[in-house]
Amino acid sequence: MDDIQRIVGEIKNANNIAMACHIMPDGDSLGSLLALSRALCLLNIKNTMYIDYNIPDKFGFLYGINEIKPYSANNKSDYDIFIALDCGDKERLGRCQSLIESSDCTINIDHHASNTMFGDYNYVDKHAAATGEIIFNILTHLDIDIDTNIAECLYTAIATDTGNFSYSNTTSDTHIIAGKLLEYDIDVDYITLQLFRKKNKKDIVLLKKVLDTLEYYSDDKIASIELKKDMITGQDYDSCETQGIIGMVRDIEGVEIAVFFKQVNENEIKVGLRSKNKYNVKDIAVQFNGGGHDKAAGFTLDTDLYTCKRMVIKKLIETINED
Fold first, then answer.
1. How far apart are CA 134 and CA 110, in angstroms?
2. What is the pTM (predicted TM-score) of this model?
3. Is 214 exposed, middle or buried (0-12, 13-18, 19+ CB in 10 A)?
């Protein structure tokens, strides 16, 4: 991990910065992106935020969310620095990875243990519960006055990646940082409602369809669900709220590993893995050129859904049987 002072020095000396987070953005990636952008604006450093994916509606309350530009080859320019946020590898940036080539240097800020260190500067802290924690530390070195908007974005980042402070990645540092953010008069009740307690009717219909695909393997220690494109009606496929479903499946009594197959195209399947206790799903994801955390990981396979399920379930059964 590169020294934070060197990274802060590069940021302070920059005139024009591009930033992007990963495809299928979550609260940590978006909250970190928006908080850092707001901080740079307070320092009068020109910056532009990009993303190569639709932004889920539930994050619409975050300050600056409408300033994020959808990726387009036409809106690129030359940048002093490109900052990648919450990306274990450059492929997770989608088409935004081309910003690496159009920038003088790349700063990679992340907390995934499987990070490939693809930046010229890499600030990767696998002990951080969320990239939002790392951004908080960087902002303290940038010597800016954190405002309510920044605090709200960072609280969203941390709360999202810790399951509202319920996951095992939550540390004493997580609570200390969250406690400091509360000093900036953020509305925790409102944030919690937007992130964890707000479901529209279409999401509930989708939840039922996905749970209807539930299957068990290895004496019910493995549970799988799937989402096919033809299951969506009257809803944008990319922005469908599905991130919490796999957690529900993992929480079923007796299940040790949950797997979620999401069909992107006919021959492109995104696979999400979650584990409850002793199984390290990051190691499984790495075998399929993916990555993530010990208990939450994922990857993409360029094949049809049937073949993908057969390959992945076979590997998961092998993992269970090896125990």
1. 8
2. 0.88
3. middle
